[in-house]
Amino acid sequence: MCTYCGCETFEVVGRFTAEHVEVIDTAGLLRRAVHDGVPPEQVVALVDLVRGLLDPHTRAEEVGLFAVLREDETFADRVEGLCAEHEQLDAQLSALRAGDHSVVDRLYADLREHIHKEENGLFPAAAVGLSAQDWERVDALTPAPRHRAHR
């Protein structure tokens, strides 16, 4: 997590950063389970747990912060790339759920890299680039967090 610019003081960024921790921790459990050879139904349950955390998170990013950032051509391409990565992560989860365990390491690495891009690139840039009115719109557009999954 970025700690140098103070972007986590924006409520939505702080929330997204906390959700990143939960997603990556749960994805780590999934990765470990696959490597340990747990039964397929346990892998499916962990995939569903990761998806249950990731889907509402990426939706909230896309309809809130990303929607406002997309209006500024400075951010538009970066936001589109991150949205494409959301789709890629979803496809990797689908492959895992269908039994292709060979993608687990790629999923984990891609997830960590994606989070790095957001926390050390996009979020600090948004903190500097968005006005107070923009942040009010981000807050208004961002769906409330759902209950957290329990491991």
TrEMBL record:
**Residue ranges annotated for the Hemerythrin-like domain, each copy included:** 15-126
Q: Name one Pfam family in it.
A: Hemerythrin
Q: Which InterPro entries match?
A: Hemerythrin-like
Output this protein's name. Answer: Hemerythrin
Organism annotation: Janibacter melonis
Q: What is the lineage of its organism?
A: Bacteria, Bacillati, Actinomycetota, Actinomycetes, Micrococcales
